[in-house]
Amino acid sequence: MLDGFESADVEAGETVIFVRRAGSGPPVLLLHGFPQTHLMWRAVAPRLAGRYTVVCADLRGYGRSACPPSDSDHAPYAKRAMARDMVAVMERLGFSRFSVAGHDRGGRVAYRLALDHPSRVERLAVLDVLPTGTVWERADARFALGYWPWSLLAQPEPLPERLIGAAPEAVVDDALDRWGSPAAVSGPEVRAAYVAALRDPARVHAICEEYRAAATLDRLHDDADHKSGRRIVCPLLALWSARGALGSWYADAGGPLELWRAWGDRVEGHALDAGHFFPEEAPAETADALDRFFAAPS
What is the per-residue pLDDT across 13-44, written as a single tens digit (0 to 9) for each? Predict the structure, then answer.
């Protein structure tokens, strides 16, 4: 589904990360969300590869990347650990500085990468996501019902692992059919790839650990940065679904741009007329927005 992209397993120090790579020019790292893999970029990455060196990575525990052991505080699956993976991967590929775009969970890894490794990130794009601490701080009944993976997958093991393992198709179909994008956007081959990843008990446990980290350590890391005044210093592009929750649930706070401006000084962005999975539903519009942003002078 990514013809012309080379595949590689990259040693990242703490784990092994699977990547697909193509193109030439300035490096751009693309990070996926849940319940997806790097395949979510299948229609965006080729459009960018004409101008950039595009690297699509599976996050640790997802897709074809390795699943390192976790521990009682879930630190191996905090976004801080996942961000270290990506620094190591890009370094091994020859890129000490790069731009990054992340959708959903990948957006959380991307902004943590920009906070923890500011010298590495040229430009940051976050897609249909708000900072983890901000989301938890404003969580309400709508959030609990609409963003069910946040609370369900963060429950102590083994309950969420057993639920996902028993019905991986139901998990994938619920997300792809009900999170605002038409069901036809993700065809049988893509769904089968996403389901296959959720048939591996080790991978399911890793994904649950990532959600447990989001409910604990990731919040603490965000809170500590916010209190210390630590900010994202690179230009930041926020894109979000015009049909989703970000544009309406957070209107009283000024919407996504205002909430991201609490974290960075150079923030721009807009909504796209598509559902949550807009990189797959509206790949041309997504690629164009990313291209304009990444190509702008720093």
Answer: 999 999 999 999 999 999 999 999 999 999 99
